[in-house]
Amino acid sequence: MKRKTSKEILAESFYELSKTKEIDKITTKDIVENCGYSPATFYRQFRDKYDLIAWAYSEAVSAIMDQVGGEEYTWKETLLDGARLFMKEKEYLSNLLLHTSGHDAFIRYMTDVNYKALRKHILKTNDIKELDDRTDLYIRIYCLGTVNLSCEWILGKYDAAPEEIAEVYENSVPQPLLEYLER
User: Fold this and answer.
1) Alpha carbon 43 to chain centroid distance?
2) Which of 10, 137, 162, 180 has the smallest count of CB within 10 Å of its CB?
3) Ranges of the chain with pLDDT below 70
4) First-to-last CA distance in the chain?
5) pTM score, two decimals?
6) Which long-range contacts link 63-71 to residues 24+ away (Cβ below 8 Å)?
7) Above pLDDT 70, what percent of the chain?
8) Residue 105 has what pLDDT?
């Protein structure tokens, strides 16, 4: 039986609190009191609540990306699972985007996490050690666009099902990346 780590418990506590409080109103004290931990335990794991937010997002993206290349798990499935995650966590992500002083910082962080995950996937599935600068730029622009679209979708600018958003993600892949992703 896998036991939850203190990081996971602290993240769950934060997530639980975010259902009733704006993100910028949640304190470290709130987080630790909610799960019965001490502030020292929190600070051994995270610098601050934004570090916790970043860690939780990285874990969610990694869980999806780690499935790519598995039995019948295609790039299209990856995009759909990402869209489903955003839809499932829409209230939480909206709270993050609307109620943090780091709105732009969180978008930049999401972009960086997605960039690193996609780059790692391309290197691994294509059995290559390094990408040329141009391919690297295509990965960066694709991640910038999909993250910004996702944030607008999460905030209600577009009324679309996860399947529709995933189709847009899929059809927006820059042509030079297709050869790497369709393997």
Assistant:
1) 22
2) 137
3) 69-70, 101-103, 183
4) 35
5) 0.79
6) 65/117, 65/118, 65/120, 65/121, 68/121, 68/125, 69/121, 69/124, 69/125
7) 96
8) 76
